[in-house]
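Hi all, long-time lurker, first post. I run a small reading group and we've been trying to get comfortable going from sequence to structure in the token notation. Rather than ask abstract questions, I figured I'd post a concrete chain and ask someone more experienced to write out its structure so we can walk through it together at our next meeting. Sequence below, copied exactly:
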Amino acid sequence: MKKRVVLVLMAAMLVVGVTACGSKDAGKKEEAKTEQKATGEIGTVSIDDLNTTDTQVIDIREEEQYIGWETEDGKGGHIKGAIDFPKSWLDMDIENDAAIGTTMENEIERRGLDLDKVTVLYSNQDVSEEDAQKYQKLGFKNISVLEGGYDAYVEAGKETDQLKHYEMYVYPQWVQDLVDGKKPETYNGGDYKICEVSLKEPSEEYEQGHIPGAYYVNTNTMNHIPGPRAVADYENIPLEEQYKIWNRPKDADIQKNLEEAGITKDTTVILYGTTAATTAAARTAAILKYAGVEDIRILNGGKTLWTLQGRELEKGNNEPQKVSFGATVPVNPDVFYDYDEEMDVVNDKNSVVASIRSWDEYLGKISGYTYIGEAGDIANSRFGYAGSDPYSMEDYRNVDNTMFNYNMMADRWKLWGIAPDKRVSFHCGTGWRASETYFYAYAMGWEDIHVYDGGWFEWHKHADSPRKEKGLPSDAPEKKPQEYFIVKDK
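-- Answer (accepted) --
Happy to help. Here is the structure in token form:
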């Protein structure tokens, strides 16, 4: 079931008179040194006196720089412990068919930001007074700015952080440079394919406007073996055949699909979709990685961010030329786990079954699908967050459809025992949402990670599969999830 969801951009708090924090106390050199200002003015803090432990530090640059990309605007990465809250969000007209809903108030809350706490903003260089005032209007009461900005902070040799495999998540200007014949950072200069993954067949949304040069990917062909969408329609299908419905296509079919799409193992493939199709793009990425494509990228923010930035869309249809893949599928079979492998995870204390499903699915209140008759989850499942329903991933998205703060993702997982020192098998209903989180974990540098391809659909088809007891486990670390989204027009 597809929903229309509206993102409402709100700056819903009174402009508050702001007094910068005072000069540092004697004997406390580690505290931030700020210049005392009159009410309503913005303070400053030097690089040497910035205390990230006691101060709330906010990065107002674009998400690509925060996760690690160096751009023409400045250096990549961020001050260790800083929270991303780009100023571009405050200026965007965010109202579309996105699969998430939020407000600026929610974005403040979900990031754990405190409006009353001493706050330091930074950009690439100095933050302008105009930009600082935008955050005052959101309600931040004690704002200072970092002298010299992030570039100066890096030059001073201070501690920074970045997403380990940030290159996995490219950004619109990176793709634009590729289209324009340039050689953006981390691109090896070989053959590339930009692919729009669409939920529609035939795809009117693709033909009416796609990234220039992009090709259309049919999810029903590339991502899975489609099946009936009503429980009753499975009655006359042999059980052995049912097990494979909604799973990945047969290996020979995957190879054929890739070759017809003009993709070889050496092709740089850039995948994207609308907000609703972002999970589908991740599923396609998982298929490609399983097959053996060596350089897979996902456009962070997808078509949503491309459009929000007012970038050009091309109409019509681009037809790829058939090629030879150059290897036998699968090159990387461990990307996907099948039933027996998932059973091994369930029974292994050094592994974790990560349930990437909505809260009500995890509790066993709903099955989540018109073609899954039983509500429940896999034995020993640990809640891994997802979204408001089986077709949404709000918990992993920012207001512009870029990936949510990766450190906060890891913190939520850690609460439930989902950690990089364990073998982790992500699952959902049929393997799409799990594929999205697989790549987030990969980008963080996690190594022993997998997607249980059959998900709850296949698991519940086996009558003797061990089930998780409905409701919360006795050792659940949370009684309710950390969710901050508003869904409208269901």
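A couple of things your group might point at:
The chain has three domains: 43-162, 167-331, 334-461.
The chain has a mean pLDDT of 90.
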